[in-house]
Design goal:
The protein has 406 residues and is mostly helical. It folds into three domains: 37 residues, no CATH class; 180 residues, no CATH class; 155 residues, no CATH class. 75% of the residues lie in helices and 0% in strands. Helix 3 packs antiparallel against helix 5, helix 9 runs antiparallel to helix 10 and helix 12 crosses helix 13.
Length: 406
């Protein structure tokens, strides 16, 4: 009896401890984040027989993530970069298999800890701004955003706030008032942080969830997306009037687009850098259309092309700011096609099952991939894999509850 009690308590506490380590790693340490996934993998191996390794649906989709990166590995096998990329993408099956074993209380605790991590990051960013407004006003003039955790990656942190908001929306253990309060805080922070990718992602998530909401009359459901769109426009106008961060980022965007020219001297501006590097990646990809260069060769290929075009100058970027250009350059046309099919499969699956969380987050990540190589590095893959897995598991729990209660 005592042995069974200890075993059951360990089974309940171990996942929670790993989740805490993982969220701490997400904010402060890539090494801790990697260790947490190794621990989750160990738990999966120990409980291997209890996992449903189905090849259909979302768990099957996550397993395909183990095969896709190989399309950019064969060109230059056994390199450290390729092993790193494979390990990063192993996060998908680890996330789905781990989440599928969490009981409902641990699942909601996980989401609550995500909110606490998000709020800790928000407090850090706002306090940094208040303590040095003049310095950050100048930084906004070149397209920078507030300092954040996650290795100061403000784009990925903005996506984390959006994903946390989505999970809060989907949670069924909060009252409407509490849920609305959390969402209002997160949306205000997203606006204040002035990360444009996060602005777009937040709009996509809000409109998608509003479209799928079943609350209210038929007329209210039809009007809800339009009312939310009006609320977004009002919030944007109010944010511009109240937040200097929003004013400065908007002024920067207007200035940058007026000054932009496809020359290396414009790389000091965020938008200019994106357009220049993506143009260079497009030219180079045309020389490796079928096979790609391999993941490890993306950075050297871009650097070589830049040096030939602008002798004596150095390119400060090692990847294109577009996920499809990254895959084309790394794995060729076949890789781009298969990656696109894999990326958009959850959208089709979510549409068929009327799963707002899956649809919203797939659209959000897809949108971010147009302006970032979101799924090429650890933080972006974490955001895609874990938030999608949590949204999927929340739906699975609702289905189970409905079946039990008739």
């Amino acid at each position: 009896m005592l042995q069974q009690t200890i075993k059951s308590r360990l089974a309940a506490s171990v996942p929670s401890a790993i989740v805490l380590l993982m969220l701490a790693g997400l904010l402060f340490s890539r090494a801790a984040l990697s260790i947490s996934h190794g621990l989750f993998l160990l738990v999966i191996i120990i409980n291997f027989r209890q996992h449903d390794l189905t090849t259909s649906g979302m768990p099957g989709w996550s397993l395909w993530a183990l095969a896709l990166p190989l399309l950019g590995c064969w060109q230059m096998p056994f390199t450290t970069q390729h092993f790193d990329f494979l390990l990063t993408w192993s996060m998908y099956p680890i996330a789905f298999l781990s989440v599928s074993r969490l009981d409902e209380s641990t699942l909601h605790r996980f989401i609550h800890w995500c909110r606490l991590a998000a709020f800790a990051g928000i407090v850090y960013a706002i306090s940094s701004y208040l303590l040095s407004q003049a310095a950050w006003a100048k930084a906004y003039g070149t397209g920078q955003s507030l300092p954040t955790f996650m290795d100061t990656d403000h784009v990925r942190f903005g996506l984390f706030l959006c994903g946390t908001g989505l999970l809060t929306w989907l949670s069924n253990n909060l009252s409407v008032r509490v849920k609305f309060s959390y969402l209002l805080l997160l949306l205000s922070a997203i606006l204040f942080m002035a990360v444009r990718t996060a602005w777009i992602v937040a709009i996509i998530v809000l409109l998608t969830c509003a479209y799928y909401s079943t609350n209210g009359s038929a007329l209210q459901r039809r009007l809800r997306p339009f009312l939310i769109l009006i609320a977004i426009l009002l919030a944007a106008s109010l944010g511009y009037l109240l937040f200097p961060t929003v004013q400065q980022k908007w002024a920067y965007m207007v200035y940058d687009w007026q000054q932009y020219a496809a020359q290396p001297e414009q790389l000091g501006y965020s938008d200019g850098a994106r357009r220049f590097v993506n143009s260079l990646a497009w030219e180079v990809s045309g020389q490796h259309t079928l096979t790609g260069t391999g993941w490890a060769n993306i950075a050297p290929t871009l650097q070589t092309a830049f040096a030939e075009k602008y002798p004596g100058q150095t390119l400060g970027f090692s990847w294109p700011f577009n996920q499809w250009l990254f895959w084309w350059l790394g794995s060729g046309v076949i890789g781009v096609v298969l990656f696109s099919a894999w990326l958009l499969y959850p959208l089709i699956k979510g549409w068929q099952e009327k799963n707002s969380g899956i649809v919203a987050w797939t659209l959000a990540i897809t949108a971010s991939c147009w302006v970032e190589s979101t799924l090429s590095f650890q933080y972006g893959v974490w955001l895609h894999a874990w938030i999608l897995a949590l949204a999927w598991q929340l739906t699975q729990n609702k289905k189970t509850y409905s079946e039990i209660n008739g």
